[in-house]
Amino acid sequence: MSALLSTNLIWLVSLLAAFTINIVALIYIPRERKPTAAMAWLLLIFLVPYGGIALYLLIGNFRLPKKRRGERARLTAVLGETDAGIHPDDPRWFQRVVEQNHGLTGIAEVDGSSLALIDDYQGSIDAMADAIDRAERYVHVAFYITAWDDTTRPFFTAMENAVKRGVTVRLLADHIASRKVPGAAETFAELDRIGVAWSWMLPVRPLKGEYQRPDLRNHRKLVVVDGIVAFVGSQNLISRDYNAAKNIKRGLKWHELIARVDGPAVAQVDAVFHADWKIETGENLDGEHVPASDIARAGDLRCQLVPSGPTFDTENNLRLFLSLIHGATERVILTSPYFVPDEAMIYAITTACQRGLDVQLFVSELGDQGLVYHAQRSYYETLLRAGVRIFLYPAPYILHAKHFSIDDDIAVIGSSNMDIRSFSLNAELSLLVRGESFVAQMREIEAKYREAGRELTLEEWRREPAKSTFLDGLARLTSALN
Predict the structure, then answer these.
(1) More confident residue, 6 or 116
(2) Fewer C-beta neighbours within 10 Å, C or N terminus of the chain?
């Protein structure tokens, strides 16, 4: 066979293979996938057939293995709740939101809790350590990132002292996120030394038969003490600069928001830990669970925890956020470090502006993740033109807090960003809170953001160089891949 014929044959086979890949992709990729995500995948595969299909096979499946699914059933079994617990005095639209959350997660709204916000980085770790120092029965800890360093040393000391008192301390850490932190080996050796029972969340160890899409992560952050006190929010268990050389070089510091929870809502936070522990270790902790009915009232707030992630059939957090924005009548104030919304979220936010609502968005002036930062910026003009007020939190801080408030009596705080990753790929926690006293605390936090930062105007944004906006648009296209 001549060299020319061989070359032509290779080209023909390659073209036929690429054509086959495109046809198969058209058939399978749109199934059970949002049109924007499907189009992004198809565009990538059409442009780079072999590389695109290889990437799709690696991270294209956003559902966890069957044995890891069914979290709703596990939560319901732990909590034993049968109805949504709706309050008769609530507006009908809000009752429907509570019913929606209950239908998706099996978790009801409970009355009688109190929440205290902590926006001091070291102060929140010290507050959690103080609660652990008072533990008598057990301590449950779960963090996306766990590290033993000068900042977290009081927390580790509190866990060690609790173990010495005979308290059972259990800890969950995300496998990929925590292992890549400098000093990870020393961190988990220290946990072994002090006697903490710990396990990885979503480990990626193919040789041990543990594998799922590598970027499906457990992003939750929670601490529960004796089933009567809990902490939830945005902060990881690590130094404020994440012990990363690139952050230290840039002088970056993370700014967070944590809520201490007292009262019956603690039972729901603990139930999520129980479910995650059962998934990762096979150990059933139901016998330790303190029912909400056995936890003394601590305030007048009504709370409903909304866990979300690939163990559920749909995006529970996204549906919650959309329902609340559509139900708002006066104002919507959003805070998210990574704001890369889908089309439904953009329409909800801009429609709120068109209804005459005061809509504000707090984000960081700097970004720590290039692609996400540029994808986020790609939405600024649309938002500004619609009337959204955007406030930029100043350098060198990364505003990592994740919360939003609706009108004067509804708020959400937790671990969920407002981006496609948090909606579809990460396991998250979002605590829905109804009560004017809590929203008043949130208003104080928002006022601090506003005072510290500056407002971005449409006129200023239009002066952005073309190079930057080109990168923004390019990053926006890649953000739809999930």
Answers:
(1) 116
(2) N
